[in-house]
Amino acid sequence: MNSNDSLMAYVLRLADNALILGQRMVELVAAYPELEEELANANFALDYLGQARMYYTYAGDLEGMGRSEDDFAFLRDENEYRNFLLLEQPNGHFGDSITKLVLFESFYLLQLEALVHCSDTRVAEIAARAEKEIRYHLRHNTQWLIRLGDGTGESHDRAQASVDALWRFTGELFAPDEVDNVFEAEFEGPDLFRIREQWQENVAAVLLEATLEMPEEQWMASGGKEGQHTEHLGYMIAEMQYLQRAHPEATW
Amino acid sequence: MVALAISREQIMAWLGDVADPEIPVLAITDLGIVRDVTIQDDVVVELTPTYSGCPATEVIEQSVLDALHGHGVENVTIKRVLSPPWTTDWISEEGRGKLREYGIAPPASGGSKRELLHGNRDVACPRCASLNTAVVSEFGSTACKASYKCNDCLEPFEYFKCI
Fold it and tell me: What DSSP designation does A79 have?
C-alpha cells in the first residue's frame, strides 16, 4: 500500500466513524428524556456531521474522481463503510448511549491530539478543529457515566451492563492494520499502542470514579475497519439513504 | 480583473455590515471568522467555521457574496480555512460589548478561560452584572451557546460558551 492509498483510506475511516456515530445520535433527536440532554445530543451530533463533511470532502479531493461528501454518505453500500463496529451499535437506553460515547471519545480525543501533529496539513487542520469539540463532549459524557455508575443501585447495574456489553467492540480501536501502519510511518500518524495505554489509564480512572468494574480481557470483535459489519449497520444505512435510493439524484 | 480599484479596507468595512445569521447583533468581522481578504484578479475572502457542523456556514458565505455583489464587486471567491482553528478568543472587544448589550454573556478569554474549562466559573449576568449566576445547561439554542440564570435578578440568559 503506497502512502496516498493509506492517507485516503485513513481519512475515509475518520469520516465514516464521524458519520455513523453522528447518524446514530440523530436517531435520538427529539427522543431524549430531558431537555438539557436533548440539546447536548443534538449539538454533539451536529459536530460529528460537520466533521464527517470535512473528512469526506478531503477524501474526495484525494481520490480525484469528483466524488462529493454526499456521494460518499449516500451512494455507498454497507461493506464500503469503514467505521468501528462500536459506533454502529444501536442506541439502547441512555446508559448504553453514554457508555458508547465515553469509550469512543476517550479514544478519539487521543487520536485527534496525535493527528494535530501529523504531517498531512489538511488532516492536522481538521483534527485541530475537531479536538476542541470532542474535548467538550467527553467532559460532559464522562460526568454522566460517573453519575449513572455512582448513582442508584438500578443505574449502577444498568451502567455496568452497558460497559460489559460494549467492551468487546473496543479492541478494534487499537488493532493496527496496514492502513494504520503506513499512515503512522509516512505521515507521523498516531501510535496505537501508546494510545491504547493512555486510553486504558483514562478509562480505568473514569470507571473507578463511577464505581464500575473494568471488564476482564476477553475476545474482541473486529471487522469494521475492513467493511465487515454487524447486522445493525445495514438497517441504519437503509434509513439514512432512503431518499437517495427512492429518488436517485434528488436535490432541493 | 476587478473593474474598480477597491481597497482591502473597503472590503473589510463592507463585511462589517454582514450579520451573523444566528446572532444578528454581531457582524462576521466581530466574530473573528473573516481571516483575510486579498485582492488579485478577484477578491478572495477567507472564512473559518466556528464549529465543524455550524449550519450557518453556507448562509454566511452566501451573505458575503450578496454583500459584495451588492457593492458592485463581481469576482468574489470564498475560501474556507481551518487553521488556526477558531476559538472564542477571536471575538473582538467590540463584539464582546455587543453581545453583552444583546443579553448574551460574552465568553471568557485567555487565563480566565482555562479556569472556566476546569470548572471555576465566573460568568457575569449581562443584565445586572452580578457574578451570582448558575449554569442551567451546558448547551443552548445554538452550538455556540450555553444556558445560565442570574440568582440576583433571576433572569435567564445565554452564555457564549468558550472553546
Answer: G
Global pTM reads: 0.88
Half-sphere exposure of A78 (CA within 13 A, CB side): 15
Q: In this complex, which of A50, A121, A132 lies closest to B54 when CB atoms are compared?
A: A50
Q: Which of B80, B92, B23 is nearest to B49 (CA)?
A: B80
pLDDT digits (tens, 9 = 90+) for A140-171: 999 999 999 999 999 999 999 999 999 999 99
ipTM strictly over 0.90?
Answer: no
Instruction: Report the chain B residue with the minimal C-alpha distance to residue A130.
Output: B52
**Tens-place pLDDT, residues A57-99:** 999 999 999 999 999 999 999 999 999 999 999 999 999 999 9
Residue A189: strand, helix, or coil: coil
CATH classification of B8-80, choosing from 2.40.10.350, 3.30.300.130, 3.40.50.300, 3.40.50.720? 3.30.300.130
Residues 63-102 of B with CB under 8 A from A: 82-87
Angstrom distance (rounded) from CA B156 to CA B133:
9
| DSSP state letters, A101-120 | HHHHHHHHHHHHHHHTTSS-
Q: How much helix, strand and coil, in percent to the nearest 5, is found in chain B?
A: 30, 20, 50
Contacts of A118 in chain B (CB under 8 A): none
Query: How many CB atoms sit inside 10 A of residue A221's CB?
Result: 16
- The amino acid sitting at A247 is H
Residue of A nearest to B147 (CA): A36
Q: Delimit the domains of chain B by residue range.
A: 8-80, 93-160
Cβ separation A130–B137 shorter than 8 A = no
B116: cell is: 472556566
Nearest C-alpha of chain B: how many angstroms from A45?
9
**CB pairs A-B closer than 8 Å:** 64
Domains and CATH numbers, chain A: 3-246 (1.20.1260.10)
Q: How many whole angstroms separate alpha carbon A149 and alpha carbon A144?
A: 8
Nearest-angstrom CA–CA distance, A49 and A72: 13
B21 close contact with A: CB closer than 8 A: no
